[in-house]
Amino acid sequence: MAEQALISADYQPAQDAFDGRVILVTGATGGIGSAVCRRLAAAGATLVILDKDLKALEALYDRIVEDNHPEPAIYPMNLEGATFDNFPEVAQRIREGLGRLDGLLHAAATMGKPAPIELYDMETWYKTLQVNLNAAFMLTQACLPLLRESDQGSILFTSDASGRNGRKAYGGAYAVANAGLEGLMRVLAAELAENTSVCVNTLDPGIVATGLRQKEFPFENPLELTQPQQVAGAFLRLLGPDGRDCHGQALSVEPAQA
Ligand SMILES: NC(=O)c1ccc[n+]([C@@H]2O[C@H](COP(=O)([O-])OP(=O)(O)OC[C@H]3O[C@@H](n4cnc5c(N)ncnc54)[C@H](OP(=O)(O)O)[C@@H]3O)[C@@H](O)[C@H]2O)c1
Description:
The chain is 41% helix and 15% strand. It is an alpha/beta fold. The chain binds NADP nicotinamide-adenine-dinucleotide phosphate. Residues 21-206 form the Ketoreductase domain. InterPro entries: KR_dom, NAD(P)-bd_dom_sf, SDR_fam.
């Protein structure tokens, strides 16, 4: 397997790096999503936080506002049941409400049910591919016109080693969706390379203590794993002005020490 380029999570953006920038984050209330949102907001970004649980979104909103960071916009949306029309609506509402979009982080995912392909449950297959791959494609497509208008548009797909080496037995639809995200990123990167300043990359956070990880490995001690805040800095680097040197790359996080 080719060596993966590492992005250090020790990255600290300049104080004004995200001032006036609008970033849409899916899976915003998840382990990694919320850690990245809080860092982005602290760096001055105005966030559109999208997830399926309204209460969790409101709790994240409260934390960001209590910390005196720019007020985020809440976008409750269940990606599993979303229809074709719902994705252009997201972009339209961002255009009307905030007037711009500078970054799109895809951090929503469901684990599906790890099982051999031979026995894989068809309904779980469809749902997992819908949330993890199809929704990411549809939202990206809908947001591209806005991102093209930014002088530093960035699209970041959160990926997983299972999507890169393609050899994770029993990874099922989750692993296949991640392989699809890698392919989507590469095709899109080639298309965006000319006449646009939009960067697109994938980032594998490594093993991180989140709800998703807990679902796959319920007997693991989360305190012994890398914590979400230890990977967040790498996401900021790729979503901001210092990520302009990365385009079309499958990157991995080098966790922060603290
Ligand atoms: N944690 C790891 O070790 C690890 C390793 C490699 C890659 N990743 C990637 O990191 C990203 C973030 O995952 P995480 O580890 O932070 O897991 P997480 O805490 O479970 O976050 C995922 C988020 O996506 C949301 N989501 C799930 N289904 C959705 C739907 N139908 N509509 C809208 N939102 C939905 C979840 O909401 P609910 O909580 O309400 O279900 C949750 O807030 C994912 O792309 C994952 O593949 C994680």
